């Protein structure tokens, strides 16, 4: 794919993307002010021609967001009170979201774990609110994926990549080359404050996704709303404990024997 600017400059691209996101939020912010004004007018029975006074928290949050966006700065980098955050979270602003920067490298640079752009990208991210940077190589991932049906060929490919890394001067774990897809998935879930729990029975084991901090009754409600309404208790164990003690058996017996099985009530 040929770049629209016909050159490689990730810092320019970051500035462009951030600018577009800030412009989008600025347009949303304009409608937020109008909607809040209309809501207050309707609530107080005030005509459209009459000026309306909005709440202090809303006004402060709006002014801060407007100032940030006009300076091409994401809202997430600003400082807000708890009351202001309560206002902002309902506005649906893109630049309030946590960000992960995925840097696509050539296979050669990915193997040797270096690029002239990485330090510059790191500095840019630090100066624009921070965020996790994950270097990947679509070229490497594609080559690895195409060998998915031939495990020996896949193993030989990874060994070849490791030898190239060793030849480039990398040592130990640094010389290992592996897919970044699992790390991307974990980083995305962590940024979104998601976690999973598992249910297991004779027919299936299933994963359910919940927000971190979700209480047991609400977690049960993800499976079925009736489970939340009629929740009494759950018998649970930590996944790491299950991996440690189950010894390959399709049973919780060993987990119970080691005192890692417990009941959680409301």
Structure description:
Helices cover 50% and strands 12% of the residues. It contains twelve helices and six strands. The chain has helices at residues 10-44, 56-70, 82-88, 107-112, 118-127, 138-145, 151-167, 181-191, 216-223, 225-229, 239-245, 253-257; strands at residues 100-104, 132-136, 194-200, 205-211, 233-236, 262-265. The strands form three sheets. It has a two-stranded parallel ribbon with strand order 1-2. Strands 3-4 form a two-stranded antiparallel ribbon. Helix 1 (10-44) packs antiparallel against helix 2 and helix 2 crosses helix 3 (82-88). The N and C termini lie far apart (54 Å). The mean pLDDT is 90.
The poorly predicted ranges are none
How many helices?
12
Helix percentage range? 40-55%
Largest beta-sheet details: 2 strands, parallel
Helix/sheet category: alpha+beta
Number of strands: 6
Alpha-carbon Rg, integer: 25 Å
Strand content: 5-15%
Mean pLDDT score: 90
Order of H and E elements: HHHEHHEHHHEEHHEHHE
Spatial order of the strands in the main sheet? 1-2
Distance between the termini: 54 Å
User: What global shape is seen?
Assistant: flat
């Amino acid at each position: 794919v040929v770049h629209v600017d016909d050159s490689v400059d990730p810092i320019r691209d970051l500035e462009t993307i951030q600018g577009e996101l800030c412009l989008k939020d600025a347009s949303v912010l304009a409608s937020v002010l109008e909607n809040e004004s209309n809501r207050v007018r309707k609530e107080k029975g005030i005509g459209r021609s009459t000026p309306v006074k909005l709440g202090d928290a809303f006004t402060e949050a709006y002014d801060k967001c407007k100032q940030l966006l006009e300076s091409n700065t994401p809202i997430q980098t600003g400082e807000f009170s708890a009351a202001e955050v309560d206002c902002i979270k309902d506005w649906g602003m893109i630049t309030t979201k946590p960000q992960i920067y995925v840097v696509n490298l050539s296979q050669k640079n990915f193997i040797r774990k270096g690029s002239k752009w990485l330090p510059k990208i790191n500095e840019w991210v630090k100066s624009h609110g921070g965020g996790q940077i994950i270097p990947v190589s679509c070229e490497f991932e594609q080559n690895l994926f195409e060998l998915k049906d031939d495990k020996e060929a896949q193993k030989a490919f990874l060994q070849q990549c490791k030898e190239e890394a060793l030849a480039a001067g990398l040592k130990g774990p640094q010389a290992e080359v592996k897919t970044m897809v699992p790390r991307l998935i974990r980083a995305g879930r962590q940024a979104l404050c998601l976690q999973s729990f598992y249910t297991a029975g004779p027919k299936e084991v299933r994963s359910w996704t919940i927000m971190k901090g979700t209480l047991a009754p609400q977690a049960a409600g993800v499976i079925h709303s009736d489970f939340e309404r009629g929740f009494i208790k759950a018998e649970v164990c930590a996944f790491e404990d299950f991996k440690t003690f189950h010894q390959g058996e399709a049973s919780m017996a060993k987990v119970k024997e080691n005192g890692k099985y417990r009941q959680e009530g409301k």
